[in-house]
Amino acid sequence: MSASAPTESLTPPRVLLTHHLRQLKLPTVLREYEKVALEAARDGQDHVRYLLRLVELELIDRERRMVERRIRAARFPAIKSFDTFDFTAIPSLNKPLVLELARSEYVVARENIIALGNSGTGKTHVCLALGLAACQRGLSVAFTTAAGLVHQLMEARDEKRLLRLQAQLSTVKLLIIDELGYVPLSQTGAELLFEVFSQRHERGSTIVTSNLPFDEWTSVFGNQRLTGALLDRLTHHVHILEMNGESYRLKQSKARHRKEPASSAEPLVNPETGEITPT
């Protein structure tokens, strides 16, 4: 063999294949190609079907990883879906509308959702499930509470990075703002939050949950004119979910207590031996 022969010719094919697949960032093909080759040989498949199966596996795995990245980027406090939501517990909720919204077409149309209802009726569960559905359909999502978002905005303003944060918030496809109305906002905080809604108007979708009806939002923002301008933008293209009723969490807690066996207040005593039997 000539001394000038390429080094690659001396390298075992499997080593080279592993190197090339890593360079091309095809981890699923690297992991599965030998197993799929054995299956193809067993089933008498030609090389085209063999390659097709490998590429399909890579695409499926790549989409799964992308969904996982979108979910991590959304910073959901918990992963919730409609599979675990009890629609019968909240009769006021329009189930067909919610399931239609789970298709995430409202995000593409840049429409908003407002979920209104008293505490514990599942508003956060619904918006988390809608956020998860959007992630699964390839859309960018960000989750925050109203108080948490205002804190981020004020901190960013103090550190002179407010414009960068506002740009990030305006470009995300779906912004979920939970618990609006639980904490009154300062004048500065209200103005910064209004600016977020204003920048997203007809540019992206926003989901807001609140325990207050619209006519009480002034108590949160502290300014009737600002509240009116906010509602004008937020309700321009909106789906409203009414979620009033008995607390979902309280109902679950009562159900658990009913299932717990009642314990006797006094220990049992064997009349013949005098021994005490623990209860």
Offer a quick outline of the entry.
This protein is an alpha/beta fold.
Description:
- There is one protein chain.
- The chain is an alpha/beta fold and 279 residues long.
- The chain contains 12 helices and 7 strands.
- The chain has helices at residues 13-23, 27-43, 47-74, 95-101, 105-108, 123-136, 146-158, 162-171, 187-200, 218-221, 224-234, 248-259, and strands at 112-116, 141-145, 174-180, 205-210, 238-242, 268-269, 276-277.
- The strands form 2 sheets. It has a 5-stranded parallel beta sheet with strand order 2-3-4-1-5. It has a two-stranded antiparallel sheet with strand order 6-7.
- The longest helix is centred in the N-terminal third of the chain and has 28 residues, at 47-74.
- The N and C termini lie far apart (87 Å).
What attributes characterize this protein structure?
single chain; 279 residues; alpha/beta; Rossmann fold; five-stranded parallel β-sheet; two-stranded antiparallel sheet; 7 strands; elongated
Mean pLDDT: 87
CATH architecture of the largest domain: 3-Layer(aba) Sandwich
The separation of the N and C termini measures 87 Å
The CATH superfamily label of the largest domain reads: P-loop containing nucleotide triphosphate hydrolases
Q: Helical segment tally?
A: 12
Give the biggest beta sheet.
Answer: 5 strands, parallel
SSE layout and pairings?
Layout: H1 13-23, H2 27-43, H3 47-74, H4 95-101, H5 105-108, E1 112-116, H6 123-136, E2 141-145, H7 146-158, H8 162-171, E3 174-180, H9 187-200, E4 205-210, H10 218-221, H11 224-234, E5 238-242, H12 248-259, E6 268-269, E7 276-277
Parallel strand pairs: 1-4, 1-5, 2-3, 3-4
Antiparallel strand pairs: 6-7
